[in-house]
Amino acid sequence: MSRREKIEAMLVDEPGDTFLRYSLAMELEKEGANDASLAKFNELTRDEPPYVPAFFMAAQQLAKLDRVNEARAYLRDGIEAARTQGNAHAAGEMSEFLSSLGAAGE
Q: Where does the pLDDT of residue 7 fall: very low under 50, low under 70, confident under 90, or very high at 90 and above?
């Protein structure tokens, strides 16, 4: 049984487990299933409260796929979510990554 399959099996018992859902998104990315991975990250960003690391990981994946404008959007939303949750460290990391991507249209 693969790591992804193990995570999926655990999610049957704990479908709302944030860490398991995040782990599944990470495994899907490792397998090259980018659309499925990004969909899982997107779900996590829509939770209440949003899961802040999902914004950063989605943005990094999008940047690797040369979908930089989408990555910037995730980072802006993630920075706002991190600040709302009082997570200055995550907001700072995402701000640095956003800066590294350059201005829109470059």
A: very high
Domain ranges of the chain: 3-100
The one-letter amino acid at 67: R
**CB of 78 within 8 A of CB of 45?**
yes
Q: Does domain 3-100 have CATH number 1.25.40.10?
A: yes
pTM, two decimal places: 0.93
Provide DSSP, 70-97: HHHHHHHHHHHHHHHTT-HHHHHHHHHH
CA atoms in the 13 A half-sphere facing the CB of 92: 4
- Dihedral sign of CA atoms 29, 33, 102, 99 in order: negative
Residues 6+ apart with CB under 8 A from 44: 18, 21, 22, 25, 50, 51, 54
Q: pLDDT for 47-62, tens place per residue?
A: 999 999 999 999 999 9
User: Of how many residues is the chain composed?
Assistant: 106
